[in-house]
Amino acid sequence: MSAVESRLAELGLTLPEVVPPLAAYQPAVRSGAYVYTSGQLPMVDGKLSAIGKVGAEVTAEEAKDLARTCALNALAAVKSVAGDLDRIARVVKVVGFVASAADFTGQPGVINGASELLAEVLGDKGVHARSAVGVAVLPLDAPVEVEIQVELTEA
């Protein structure tokens, strides 16, 4: 077990299986020293954890937890192409999308769920640049979607 996966276990978390693509794309792609994940939804055991807009059917706190799930799914996608999460040199960028009710403006707090998880798991390597964007709707009516970009160490 990698040090990163041991840290996940210490936090009471397990790395999930890679979420299969819902359309014509790959969950993650490696280019040189970088891995770019596709947008990860809050899928658990092949099912979306919640549906609806944040600020309406889904609370900001619920959405923050869903963003954590998205980040875990993103780490699984990274592992699928990197082979070992211990190869992560750093998380470079996180982009989070929040399906928002018209008056909801707490997107940064929601995406903190993903950012905080990455920092908890990876320490300083998990601190990153980030965008948190409110959108009208996401695939399958998901409340949150997160993508990450990581730099790898040499094999």
From TrEMBL:
UniProt-recorded name of the protein: RidA family protein
InterPro entries for this protein: Endoribo_LPSP/chorism_mut-like, RutC-like_sf
Ranges where the Endoribonuclease L-PSP/chorismate mutase-like domain occurs: 5-148
PANTHER family recorded: ENDORIBONUCLEASE L-PSP_CHORISMATE MUTASE-LIKE DOMAIN-CONTAINING PROTEIN, ENDORIBONUCLEASE-RELATED
Organism in which the protein naturally occurs: Streptomyces macrolidinus
Pfam family, one: YjgF_endoribonc
Annotated Gene3D superfamilies: RutC-like
